[in-house]
Specification:
eight-stranded mixed sheet, six-stranded mixed sheet, 8 helices, 323 residues, alpha/beta
């Protein structure tokens, strides 16, 4: 009987096109896309997610993805954007990988008045899932880049969309969300610049991504502490992997982010992002913000987002490769 069961199990695995113990069979692939290979650099914001079924999502392309022609991208089914600030939307990009230094990347190619985000979405024909008034603003940019208004997918707090089997929800982020005049038409830009104003495009947001293998990822965006981190992110969505911004001043610092992880979100693993500092040799600076964060986080694995290095997570947020 045991032999029969074993044979049936092997046959089932064969039908799925897998071999026993094959890597990546039901794992989510997460690849940071930074300015310098193997490092986590000052300008890095972007992540590329791939569901086990092949659905791909690009988060906060910013200033480190080399536009639509970036060879690291491939197809992009969904583009996500947490805010319209220049470092997330993308006002300029490097001409090539490893330009400048990790601490001072050279981003010499301007993408304004459009944006890196809109250019990528248009070229890849991606759905763009955003909250607030960002849909209306980005719709014009995507169309200007050769895309279609049908690509734009509005999502409000408390709702969800499913694209290619991946569930997408937005959650609250406490931050400003004004778009720089550099992205606006000349008439509006000229009228706003003298008073130092930006154009408000609705509230910024974080995201909850629920993948088909059961992994639930919280993308914090730029934010301070919110009670939603406990009540919504942890208790309702049950996020088990957090990608948390912790650059300080403009978002939580390492102490605040570590407290949010330890006391509010309580994920099974965490990736510290948006630190606004450079690693060296793929290692955190001994006295830097990442090192402080890693020291303060208790009993939760911390994985550095090194550019181009793909991490694979199972449904329980255990990193099974690349960490």
């Amino acid at each position: 009987m045991k032999k029969l069961l074993l044979l049936l199990a092997i046959a089932a695995v064969g039908l799925l096109g897998l071999t026993p113990g094959s890597a990546g069979a039901a794992n989510v692939k997460i690849t940071p896309l930074g300015t310098h290979d193997g490092e986590a650099c000052r300008r890095d914001r972007a992540f590329l997610f791939e569901d086990p079924n092949g659905t791909t999502l690009l988060y906060d392309a910013g200033r480190s993805v080399l536009g639509p022609s970036d060879p690291r991208l491939g197809k992009v089914d969904v583009v996500l954007l947490s805010s319209v600030h220049s470092d997330h939307l993308g006002d300029r990009i490097p001409a090539a990988l490893n330009a400048g230094t990790c601490a001072k990347p050279k981003t010499s190619v301007k993408t304004t008045p459009n944006s890196n985000t809109a250019n990528i979405a248009a070229a890849k024909k991606s759905k763009v899932v955003v909250g607030g008034q960002m849909r209306g603003f980005l719709r014009k940019k995507v169309i200007a880049a050769g895309g279609s208004k049908k690509q734009m997918q509005l999502l409000r707090f408390g709702g969800k969309r499913t694209v290619g089997g991946v569930k997408i929800a937005i959650v609250q982020a406490i931050h400003a969300n004004g778009v720089s005049p550099a992205f606006l038409n000349k008439t509006m830009a000229d009228s706003m610049k003298p008073d130092g104003l930006t154009a408000y495009v609705g509230q910024e947001n974080g995201y909850i991504l629920t993948f088909t293998n059961g992994l639930v990822v919280y993308l914090s965006g730029d934010t301070g502490h919110t009670a939603d981190m406990e009540t919504i992110v942890r208790r309702y969505y049950k996020a088990n992997l957090a990608i948390i911004n912790m650059g300080d001043i403009f978002s939580m610092g390492p102490e605040e982010a570590a407290w949010a992880i330890n006391e509010l979100i309580k994920p099974k693993a965490v990736i510290p992002s948006h630190a606004n500092e450079a690693t060296k040799g793929g290692k955190a600076k001994p006295k830097g913000k990442r090192a402080k964060f890693m020291k303060l986080v208790k009993d939760i694995p911390v994985h550095l987002p090194l550019s181009g290095k793909t991490m694979e997570f199972d449904g329980n947020a255990k990193c099974v490769a690349g960490c």
